[in-house]
Amino acid sequence: MRGSSFRRIAIGVVVIAVIIAVIYGSSAPAPGEGFFGRLWPILNEFALWTAVQLGLIYGFVALGVYLSFRVLDFPDLTVDGSFPLGAAVTAALIVAGVNPWLALLASIAAGGVAGLITAVLSVRFRILHLLASILTMYALFSINIRVMGSSNLSLARQETILTPISALDLGLTAAQTRVVVIGLLLVLTAAALAWLLTSSFGLALRAAGANPRMARAQGISTSRSTYFGMALSNGLVALGGSLFAQTQLFADVTVGSGTIVIGLASVIIGESLLRSRSIWITLAGCVLGSVIYRLVYQWALTKDEICLGFCLEFRPSDLNLIAATIIALALILPRLGAGRGFR
Question: Three-state DSSP class for 1?
Fold first, then answer.
């Protein structure tokens, strides 16, 4: 990694530390508030851990979206269907008495098949990327209902991958335990993906997305690369859906609405914060962007209004506007800095 990357990370850490110090030092602790209540005074401790948990779950979505959009250069809307597909397959299998870990693997396979179908429609039958993914996403809505037998399915009182761990006395709350387990799975997944993309096969995969004509000239099968990459991308998204169902204890056909927006926002925010040629740093930025997005989203849910000289009242209907503003700012601010001669 170049020295400039170290400097950017160091500056970011210093800025975050200063903000934390100001917030922590200027807020008086309320009775029973705890450290995190002072660290993030807008959110209570439960809301904070819940936002981090969802941010880590959608971190799998961010990794999948990065693989399809950035590595393969394949605009893919299938994720809006493969996320609830992962949740639906997991919920249906767990209710049927299947081991939660096997249900998790089955959801990954189901997501991979969905991504493969989109790739076949686009590559083999030459249907436009976006149209092929829209067709698959549209079909998955009905398939998800078929899998669950209804539009939603509850996992209350069912055993999940977190049940044995929650039974252990680790001195953590249920929300903190979920964050630790999901965080470990996310770290292992991101490390495996980074290793894959830096291997010879991964370099061929990246070449197929960056310059297909040159890749074919070097003997790389761009069709097979697209098939594999799209299957892996949607498998990662379905993995996030499976973890969502097992932590929230339900699956619903509507949980995938806006998944592509969340994934894109996470990737854009991560790339804006951690600009690097290193795949490891880039994937870490995607995960960080997902967590930041969920924290801001949770703040928007909690905050009634914001006053900066004048007051703006927040309503639940404003959440899509806030999400679009976050993404727009993440895209605009780096360009403004570049216009002034900064990198």
Answer: coil
Cβ neighbors of 78 (< 8 A, separation 6 or more) are 114, 115, 118, 133, 136, 137, 140, 230, 234
Rounded mean pLDDT of 197-217?
Answer: 94
Residues in the chain: 343
| pTM of the predicted model over 0.70 | yes
DSSP state letter for 317 = G
Which long-range contacts (C-beta less than 8 Å, at least 24 apart) are formed by 96-103? Answer: 100/159, 100/160, 100/161, 100/163, 100/246, 101/161, 103/242
- Phi then psi for residue 227, to 5 deg, are -60, -50
What are the φ and ψ backbone dihedral angles of 173, each rounded to 5 degrees? -75, 170
Kindly list the distances between the CA atom of residue 152 and the CA atoms of 7, 106, 335, in Å, as whole numbers in the listed order: 48, 19, 43
Give residue 10's pLDDT band: very low, low, confident or very high (50, 70, 90): low
- pLDDT tens for each residue of 28-75: 444 445 545 544 455 677 788 888 999 999 999 999 999 999 999 999
Gap between the Cα atoms of 234 and 290, Å rounded: 17
